[in-house]
Design brief:
With 111 residues, the chain is an alpha+beta fold. It is built from three helices and six strands; from the N terminus they run αββββαββα. 27% of the residues lie in helices and 33% in strands.
C-alpha cells in the first residue's frame, strides 16, 4: 500500500517550514525529518507514524487509534502508529505533528 498523498499534503500544511525540514520516502511512506531526525510520517500502512519521547509513549496509547509501532514483530519504543481516523480533524493532526516535531527538535541534528 502506498502512503496517503492527501495526508502527506495535510502534514505539509501544518508542519512549520524551515531549513532543517526535509522529506524522504522511507518504509513505504513519506517521512518528515527535522535536522535529520524523523518526526512524523504518512505511513504506507495508513495513518501516521509519530516519534515521541520513549518515556511518555505508553501514556499516549489508547489501544484503538493510537498503538505502538511494531517492526519485526516487536514494539519500537518512542514510535506510535496513529490511525487515519484519529487525525481527520485538523486540530488532531496538528497536535500529533507538533508532538513529533517537538521531540525531533530535542534530539541532536544528524549530518
Amino acid at each position: 500500500m502506498a502512503y496517503d498523498e492527501e495526508l502527506a499534503e495535510r502534514i505539509r500544511e501544518v508542519i512549520e517550514p524551515g531549513p532543517e525540514l526535509t522529506e524522504r520516502k522511507m518504509f513505504g511512506g513519506l517521512a518528515f525529518l527535522i535536522g535529520g531526525n524523523m518526526a512524523v510520517a504518512a505511513s504506507g500502512k495508513g495513518g501516521l507514524l509519530v516519534r515521541v519521547d520513549p518515556r511518555h509513549g505508553d501514556d499516549l496509547l489508547d489501544g484503538s487509534h493510537v498503538q505502538s509501532m511494531v517492526m519485526g514483530g516487536r514494539d519500537i519504543d518512542g514510535w506510535l502508529r496513529v490511525s487515519a481516523e484519529a487525525v481527520r480533524a485538523e486540530a488532531a493532526l496538528r497536535e500529533w505533528v507538533d508532538r513529533g516535531v517537538a521531540y525531533a527538535r530535542s534530539l541532536p541534528a544528524k549530518r
